[in-house]
Amino acid sequence: MCRLLGYFGPPIPLARFLTDDGHSLVVQSYQPKEMTAGVVNADGFGVAWYDTRQPAPYRYRNTCPIWSDVNIESLGAFAESGQVLAYVRSATPGLGLDMANTQPFVHGPWSFVHNGFIEGFGSADGIALRRAIGERLEDHIWALRPGETDSGYLFAWLMQHLDGQPSEQGITAALREFDTLPGLGRVGLNFLMSDGACIYAVRHARGFDCATLYLLTETADFPGATLVASEPLFDGPWRALPPNSLTVLSRNDQSGREPVALAA
Description:
seven-stranded antiparallel β-sheet, 14 strands
């Protein structure tokens, strides 16, 4: 399973969580502590970050392991932001390792990273489920679908439900409808989304225990900031987000609004 990270606060260099802290994403790529499937996250990585020059996020991705990317230290030292999503990937067997399948996925102001899977999605038995999802997507949403992974289909599904709806309600409605798809088995849907104004953190699973997702608000190391991550980056008062819930982080309430319960 992948490792996710979101940051919301005063602008800081990306290196603070990509490479610098004790359990940074680089360390989590080869020595994760709380993965329930897989051993390492060596199938690519990516980071999306926002600033005032444009509403859409900037993005950097690579299909190689983050520890082998010769540009990551320079990027981390140069680029800074007050809102960031990042991840290191452990690919589901049978799903491609090309750039199209490497997150973060972006569309307009949105960025998205996913840790989880849809059981059987990439197998012959998953054809009916892929078709069921595709048949519910409008043509223009189908066209923006990134790659052929379960994560790409999930991103497109969310984009359709966010079209014209307040984001919190749209995400909640999307997940509740997703859980009713015919032929759906076990799923892990931990993900982070950002529109540049808020970060939406979902910890959700069907058929098994949710993967971990933690929240940390304002510490001496990160004054005025909030972090959400699959694993703590350092010792501190991290708290686990509730299973099967959506938590919204905004500039007015970086400690997170009261989590919204999702169907288990």
